[in-house]
Amino acid sequence: NGLNGHSVLQTEDDAALDTQSSLQLLEDPKSTDLRNEFGKFQQSPGLVSSSSSFSFTMFPTVDEMIVNQRLIEMSAQHPKDLVVIFVDTTYLETFGVWLDHYKHHDNSERILSIFAISEIAYDKVSAAFSSPTTQAKLRGVGETLLVNLNPGKGKDMRNADPDRFLNKLWVLRLHIMQRIINTFPNLNVLYTDADAIWLKDPVQLYNHPQHQSSNIVASRGTYPEWCPLAMELHDDEKMHLNTVTICFGFTYFRNSPDLHQLAQNLQNAVARYRNDDQIAINCVLNLQYDSNDDLHMNDPSSIAAFTQPDKSVIRSFFGKVIAHNIKVSILPYEQVTRRCGRDEGMLENSVVAHCYTDLKEGQSKLNAFDHFGFLIEGQNSLRHVFDNPELDTPILASSSAPGTRASWEEAAYSLSLDRFWRHIKAATPEGDSIENSYYPDLKAQHQSTKELRSTRLLNSVRIPKSGSSALSVKARALSGCHPDGYPCCKFPGHPVGSCPRKDLMCSLVTGCTDHRPDYDGDEAVITTLRDPVSRSVSAFFYHYPHTSVKHGESHTWEKFVENIQSPRYKNILTKMLEGSYAYVGFDEVKHTVPRAKARLCTIAWFGLSEMPVSSSMMLYETPQFRKLLPNPVAFGLQASDATAAEHAAEEKDGLRVNSDSEYKEFLAASFATNDGTSFVMQHNQHDMEVYQFAEKLFCGRLLAKIGLVEEMKQGGLGLEEIEKCTSIGFDNIEELCYNIQNNA
Predict the structure, then answer these.
(1) Are 528 and 504 within 8 A, CB to CB?
(2) Which residues pair with 146 in a beta bridge?
(3) Confidence check: pLDDT of 507 > 70
(4) For a Cys-Cys bond, which of 86, 230, 364, 495 suits 357, CB 3.0-4.6 Å?
(5) Which stretches does DSSP call E strand in 513-612?
(6) Nearest Cα to Cα of residue 462 among 626, 607, 614
(7) 154 or 536: which leads in pLDDT
(8) Closest CA relative to residue 174, chosen from 87, 253, 106
(9) Cβ distance 450 to 640 under 8 Å?
(10) Higher pLDDT, 73 or 645
């Protein structure tokens, strides 16, 4: 039962009354006029339809919602709560179940604001809400707004840019919240997820006397663990502490000038925190605000003092730059429940059930609703009102599905960022500001350190056909070259035409173009290596100076033999580690294995093309880069300020690829028939020995990083690479490096 006394399962008599209300609505000439205009809502924004205790207004854009006079009038006389919920096509049935519960509470002081993430969702909800039959079922929902978040940009935001979808949504949520509270001073904002079921009216939570002075009343989470706002005692005997954070699944923002300032701070900082609004709000309060109270995170007695009898935690924070206070109430799991089935009777006293499921998709949520008895059956159920096959369009498979390249890149970046914040917090002396403990790039670090005088901040040794273009992108990102996400530092590049833009000049990086190593400076050196056999074949199918094959000539086995036997194309890795141009003639006296190994031992970071995940994870674990905030570009992700068109141009112009069909045909025929692998190894014995040493050195360093391999395994990252590393035998590789350097 809701607090207004309505039964959750309506009777046939209730349904009859609703039908009667619907018929009365249709007989009302004024209502009929409104109904007849529904087809014009895109041309006539802010169109209103109403039914008994339900009315809704449609907005084709957020801008039109913000300036709508009706919304201004609704909130002008006294404060109201704007319930904000985001829906897309995959969660419409879930949203229908949520509405079944929402409509049984007293919503007279609320305005439900539905933000449709996709145009399909907007069309489906507007069509359902325009139906008199559905309007009868919506009795009790009250004032409702429907806003299109994705007008004129294709049918589904997920399809338009699936890899960045959530980041865009999280940033958009903060932007919308800021615009609402700044425009409507009498509107408080209540964020609720579509799977956070209101079993009882949550007004008893955020308007409880102990929380009425709080700017934020939020459900409880543990993420992000590195930015807790409090701790809770999990095990009295072992004194184990759990982190306490704001969870955006159910969060109430009480409008005030202080909240306006926090919202602005969140907008300014969210890009720094992975474009994740939940990370941003917790880390901004944890790192950028001072505490108004004297809570000691690791002191159980202090923690107990800040825990209310109902297990709520209340904290107070002070904004340092522009003076303002923020008071936060974090609700206990008994009131907003996450692990719904963990303890018997957990849901008996729950007000909001936001049940955790392993899979974050609509059907898993519905299965959980069914298991816990949340589904409401009967003629007035709203669960299926959005089923409209005529509006369906095929949903493209997301490129971030498990196992794809985009998936591990995102996950590697996320884990690297998590480890970075934990390291920075641990390394910051007590009393010091964490903001002064890290830098966005080497340029910022250079500007803050008097000892660093040279403008050359990083040395990029680009071994051809070993991911050298991607290496240049990493070098620019680490150094602070702008714009982000491009593979060269001067136009037109070498060879001419390899640089996609004219505004990429950056003197911070040595060796950002061409393949001529320069070890004269004292800046950190980075490089990437590739198995000599696959590197040699790839180079053979490239263009001059990487191959002897001229334009128009065929890639025959005879030409390949000529290429591999030429001193110009032998032992490229050994030559470049010694300091020679990649395509100088190989000299056995000058280009030795011991000297190449010794050089490799001094390189700050090197990656292996055959181990892309582990190589990415090791980049920001490197001592020289440990204070740098991980940049998504360094993980192969799109620059945050780049458009999709720019990214496509970068892929096409900067990161070039071989002729795939001829390349594959050669490998399957001539190369396989003539045992090309053995032939390449025979003529590149120096490189083979150096590369095998590099594998041992890389794996030794990877396995030596405290906790890294364990966390990678937990996230399913680079499992095959880790397995290979554990199978490679090595004995104290760093000591071996020391001896090699002394004897070289």
Answers:
(1) no
(2) 58, 114
(3) yes
(4) 364
(5) 524-529, 605-608
(6) 607
(7) 536
(8) 253
(9) no
(10) 73
Question: Which residues contact residue 273 at a Cβ distance below 8 angstroms, ignoring those fewer than 6 apart?
Answer: 279, 280, 283, 284
Omega of the bond leading into 495 within 30 degrees of 0 (cis): yes
* Separation of alpha carbons 523 and 515, rounded Å: 18
Separation CA 582–CA 568 (nearest Å) = 8
What is the pLDDT, as a whole number, of residue 456? Answer: 84
Contact 676, 682 (CB under 8 A): no
Identity of the residue numbered 381: S
The gap between the terminal CA atoms of the chain, to the nearest Å, is 81
CA distance 717 to 711: 8
In single-letter form, the type of residue at position 725 comes to C
Beta-ladder partners of 233: 241
Where helices occur in 77-138 by DSSP H, the ranges are 92-102, 119-130, 132-137
Nearest to 127 by CA among 63, 23, 35: 35
- Within 10 A of 623 (CB to CB), how many other CB atoms are there? 9
The closest of 354, 289, 698, 402 to 528, measured between CA atoms, is 698
CA neighbor of 112 nearest in space, from 382, 390, 387:
382
CB 479 within 8 A of CB 455: no
**Residue 279 structure tokens:** 């990370």
272 touches 630 (CB < 8 A): no
**Residue among 174, 167, 170 nearest 262 (CA):** 174
- Virtual CA dihedral for 332, 333, 338, 343, nearest 10 degrees? 170
Amino acid at 600: L
202's CB contacts (< 8 A; 6+ apart) are 190, 250, 252, 351, 352
- For the chain, the farthest-separated pair of C-alpha atoms sits apart, in whole angstroms, at 99
Residue keyed to tokens 């090791």? 618
Tokens 């591990």 belong to 408
Q: Is the peptide bond before 79 cis (omega within 30 degrees of 0)?
A: no
Looking up tokens 């907003």 gives 336
Q: Helical H runs in 229-382? A: 257-269, 277-283, 300-305, 362-372
Spatial CA neighbour of 484 closest among 271, 215, 217: 271
How far is the C-alpha of 632 from the C-alpha of 474, rounded, in Å? 10
Q: How far apart are CA 409 and CA 394, in angstroms?
A: 26
Strand 240-253, strand 216-221: pairing: antiparallel
Q: Over 684-728, what HEC string results?
A: CHHHHHHHHHHHHHHHHHHHHCCCHHHHHHHCCCCHHHHHHHHHC
CA–CA distance, 657 with 635 (Å, rounded to integer): 19
Highest mean pLDDT (candidates 152-156, 428-432, 518-522): 518-522
- As given in the structure block, the two tokens for residue 514 are 């061409």
The chain-wide mean pLDDT, for the chain, equals 80
Give the span between the Cα atoms of 49 and 84, in whole angstroms: 20
Q: How far apart are CA 419 and CA 612, in angstroms?
A: 18
Angle at 337 between CA 711 and CA 88, to 5 degrees: 80
Handedness of CA 444, 450, 454, 458 (dihedral sign): negative
| Residue written as token pair 């190994």 | 597
Task: Return the HEC string of 139-151.
Answer: CCCEEEEEEECCC
Contacts of 727 (CB under 8 A, 6+ apart): none
Q: Please confirm whether the linkage preceding 492 is cis (ω < 30° from 0).
A: yes
| Percentage, residues of the chain above pLDDT 70 | 80
